[in-house]
Amino acid sequence: MPTILLHGGLITANTASNKAFYKTMADAVPPGGTWLGVYFASTSDREGPKYKSDSRKVKAAVTHKFTTVLATQENFPQQLKKADVIFFAGGATAGLMNQVKAWPELKSWLKKAKFIAGSSAGANLLCQTYTTKNAPHHGQGLGLVPYNIVVHLNAPAYAHITPPPAPYIALPETQFCLLQI
After folding, report:
1. Domains of the chain by range and CATH?
2. Which of 4, 40, 81, 123 counts the highest number of beta carbons within 10 A?
């Protein structure tokens, strides 16, 4: 099973914790390896700029050289199998969940990965169930992480959400946790 890095959202904030998140991902990429950025939760006009920003930040976190790749719908299965680190970025959880339905074997592929990170919607994808500000019920993730999750904990826009059943991970914005499953 892979090492899993979950982030609570607001990854764009310039904080020490967010810098540590990028460094944790970068440290997991071996020299000459590949970091795969998956932006399927973003609208098409935002995925390019988000990828460029995240790619720059993850490369700046370490001195060794590695390749960053933007995941595409057409080549995702092949890209995923070649990546040393897979990062599922935030955005709309419902959109991400709809897109990954195209690959029913995604969970089994991810179990073979070395290192997977997810922020906000990306973290929701990896856990058993999740709660979002736009859905009145708990959504179903892939279940790669054997816990339920709440991201954006204590953020005003999320004050109305009900936590999922225990056991769950609760992550405030800009905070993360590293799991060995």
Report:
1. 3-180 (3.40.50.880)
2. 123
Residues 31-76 have pLDDT tens digits of 999 999 999 999 888 888 999 999 999 999 999 999 999 999 999 9
3 state SS of 109: helix
34: burial class by Cβ within 10 Å (0-12, 13-18, 19+)? middle
pTM: 0.96
Q: For residue 54, what are the CA distances in angstroms to 13, 18, 134, 136, 149?
A: 12, 11, 25, 31, 23
- Whole-angstrom CA distances from 40 to 1, 5, 58, 79 are 23, 18, 19, 14
- What values do phi and psi take at 171, rounded to 5? -120, 115
Cα-to-chain-centroid distance, residue 131: 15
Contacts of 58 (CB under 8 A, 6+ apart): 22, 25, 26, 29, 35, 68, 87
